[in-house]
Amino acid sequence: MSHNTIGHLFRMTTWGESHGPALGCVVDGCPPGLPLTVEDIQLFLDKRRPGQSRYTTQRQEPDTVEILSGVFDDGGGRQVTTGTPISLVIRNVDQRSKDYSDIKDKFRPGHADLAYWQKYGIRDYRGGGRSSARETAARVAGGAVARKVLPGVVIRGALVQIGPHRIDRGRWDWAEVDRNPFFCPDPRAAVTWAAYLDGIRKSGSSVGAVIEVVAEGVPPGLGAPIYGKLDQDLAAAMMSINAVKGVEIGEGFASAELTGEANADEMRAGPNGQPVYLSNHSGGVLGGISTGQPLVVRFAVKPTSSILTPRKTLDIGGKDAEILTKGRHDPCVGIRAVPVGEAMTALVLADHLLRHRAQVGERR
Fold it and tell me: pTM here?
């Protein structure tokens, strides 16, 4: 299986399966001399970790990260990056492969089971193997390293919709994101979601969601106009996340309803001759290049395919069958996708920052 790497100058390769002994990543291209400790990475892994509420899978994984290479004591008691590949490992400790024994010869509708089998001829039924969202733990670890390359950039994510229920943007409060199990910036919406998702969970079903990631402090000039657009790479990074079926930047699809006057981000002269934008419909990117405004990316996650409702399917022999999936699954996988979206944003920005320096130097 090829294509397990993202990035050009700042590169991350992930490895491992859902029910294997471990998973992890190798980060290559990280500049030397950046402070990096296990705690710096664990902070973000703890946000994604399963089993923290009744609204996520009850698989009990501590997601404890180990740094195997790429850091060294600088002589002053600090662990810093050396510029060599940084290898990170996360042990799997709570696999229950037997939960999948009843479906080992059947394909889950809506899941990648059949597509993987058609392509590779291998049926890793233990949680989906490489196609499992368990792989995203390694992405979050790599994204934590990427943040070290982005001084002054603040990357935050939030859940803005579960099923048909959206937040009220007039009540957006970033502080609320850490006060509820949904990463929800609207306290009233969080209450509605709790009751709604309890019903979904008890019925053995699942539902989709929309995540929004905002990066502030992004310098202008990141990205290249044709085949290296910043928003192009962001969209590709978000689409690479398990279960993502749609991505938009800024106004996204809503811009189709706007006129040219409404959509234009008008400008005025600001301090030190820097432009001040009167709106941000572009989501911080114009012509594939960052404008210095907040970068706004949104992505839609489909419902989890592993549900208790019996569904029509096929078995490996090509015969009609029925399937229901037991085990521990997220009723809304979008919840834990929030820190994953943040990580993918960090990885793309770190790569583009290094590419920008290679193109024009650090003076711009």
Answer: 0.93
